[in-house]
Amino acid sequence: MMLIPCPWCGPRNETEFHYGGQADVPYPAEPQELSDVEWARFLFYRANPKGLFSERWNHQAGCRRWFTVRRDTTTNEIFQDDSHEAVTR
Amino acid sequence: MPRTPGADLPDHPDWLWNSPEPKHSYDVVIVGGGGHGLATAYYLAVNHGITNMAVLESGWLAGGNMARNTTIIRSNYLWDESAGLYEHAMKLWEGLEDELDYPLLFSQRGVLNLAHSLQDVRDSKRRVGANRLNGIDAEWLDADQVAEICPILNTSEDLRYPVMGATWQPRAGIAKHDHVAWGFARALDRMGVDLVQNCQVTGFDRIGDRITGVRTTRGDIAAGKVALAAAGSTSVLTDELGLALPIQSHPLQALVSELLEPVHPTVVMSNAVHVYVSQAHKGELVLGAGIDAYNSYGQRGAFHTIERELTAAVELFPMFSRAHVLRTWAGVVDVTPDASAIMGLTPFENLYVNCGWGTGGFKATPGVGWCYAHTIAHDEPHPLNAPFNLDRFATGALVDEHGAAGVAH
Ligand SMILES: Cc1cc2nc3c(=O)[nH]c(=O)nc-3n(C[C@H](O)[C@H](O)[C@H](O)COP(=O)(O)OP(=O)(O)OC[C@H]3O[C@@H](n4cnc5c(N)ncnc54)[C@H](O)[C@@H]3O)c2cc1C
Ligand SMILES: [Zn+2]
């Protein structure tokens, strides 16, 4: 079980969180303009790195806020993402 | 004279395959020596006459998901595309022991997929109908009929999620995963195919968009064709080429109990309370459930995932409360958005991809080998794997098997 650092509640058990996958995937600015291939990219394709990964977590059983961490996908080591203020505005 | 412990053990059996040095060049190089890589090499040799070929494996042969899965084999998937591929695999399973002349402990003891709600019942009956139209053995059973087949299952009405019935595929079952890999490996070795272990592919040689070979931890190897069969590690390889794939790698765990007397006659799976259980030939109860939620290449998961599936198992099988967890482990599974595999050509000439089998590719092993070998030999997908192309994510022709594959197996 991972201890996940919620920026507001501190480190809490993984069971309190909901996983949100890759961080920083913006909704397309002009969705009508996208080709099918571009739309598929937005819907279905996410980075899948072995190593450092910026990802979203929601503190579902706590403050219910979303935040971003960087985690190593082989060791589960977590690094607080210094951009969390920006992404939770 | 005191006896050395173990001195009277039998000799080590003959090796089933050699471990040759890689050559500088092959007609076909297969990346990944799991079940899919081995089966593909086998059918390339047997069906298409290609033997100047190597299977390159970064670790030891079949030590990835092939060594870690819970060996459930079935073909009762909903959509025609899946039914075609999985049923083709099932037919091959039915002759595979003879074909490889090797004991696979393939046991068609049937599978029950439980229904716990009215919606489950409707979906299950629909799937039974679809299966039958595709010539696949399937029946709908009510709770009493389920109890007849599997008496240790709690079919009383006082469960939180009572068993309202189940689908039944009598030809489904289990096989001994290691033996399947070893049977293919032995046959390949005899046909002169190189099985190269401790050989990690780290990159590709290319001229423009044409792949001409692989770079490995044991030197560069030229190849007429390169076929990926690296399961959970596929993205690491395709990232080298800037080829994006819609897969996410997750831990999938399984566990066994101590050896017990035979008590469990079949395979039981439940999507709703999420657990699946069979009993191996040796006697261990073999249990599994869903992936751990986060992306990972770590081959380990969290204990709360195990705890949740055991809660479900004990609810369904009260007598299991006396069993013990002997061992847990995890593999890295490559999950796709529609819970179906990706198999076919790539934007690169002479590069082929087979991945995205996620939590359920063991059952498909001989079918994958057959169809992927065809794809590689003819540079064109076999009709059975044509629907599983990469383009479907853009065209929208998804093969959504979340209903039939929603439980990991
Ligand atoms: C816990 C668990 C339970 C499962 N239960 C079932 C089940 O009951 N029924 C079912 O049908 N399926 C099940 N599966 C899924 C099934 O195991 C997989 O879909 C299937 O094994 C994948 O194909 P494979 O055997 O070729 O994979 P693997 O055995 O993982 O083979 C891939 C190989 O590629 C190698 N490799 C990776 N990268 C490189 C590289 N760069 N260079 C060289 N080699 C490389 C790896 O070392 C590995 O040996 C389960 C999986 C797990 C983890
Ligand atoms: Zn919080």
TrEMBL record, chain A:
Keywords: Oxidoreductase. GO terms for biological process: tetrahydrofolate metabolic process. InterPro entries: SoxD (IPR006279), SoxD_sf (IPR038561). It is an enzyme of class 1 (oxidoreductase). Its EC number is 1.5.3.1. The keyword Coiled coil does not apply. It comes from the Bacteria. GO terms for molecular function: sarcosine oxidase activity. This is Sarcosine oxidase subunit alpha/sarcosine oxidase subunit delta.
UniProtKB/TrEMBL annotation, chain B:
Signal peptide: none annotated. InterPro entries: FAD-dep_OxRdtase, FAD/NAD-bd_sf, Rhodanese-like_dom, SoxB. Gene3D superfamilies: D-Amino Acid Oxidase, subunit A, domain 2 (3.30.9.10), FAD/NAD(P)-binding domain (3.50.50.60). Its EC number is 1.5.3.24. One of its GO terms (biological process) is tetrahydrofolate metabolic process. GO terms for cellular component: cytoplasm. It is an enzyme of class 1 (oxidoreductase). It is found in: Cytoplasm. Its cofactor is FAD; FMN. The keyword DNA-binding does not apply. GO terms for molecular function: nucleotide binding; sarcosine oxidase activity. It catalyses: sarcosine + (6S)-5,6,7,8-tetrahydrofolate + O2 = (6R)-5,10-methylene-5,6,7,8-tetrahydrofolate + glycine + H2O2; sarcosine + O2 + H2O = formaldehyde + glycine + H2O2. Keywords: Cytoplasm, FAD, Flavoprotein, FMN, Nucleotide-binding, Oxidoreductase. Residues 28-72 form the Rhodanese domain. Belongs to the SoxB family. This is Sarcosine oxidase subunit beta. It comes from Prauserella isguenensis.
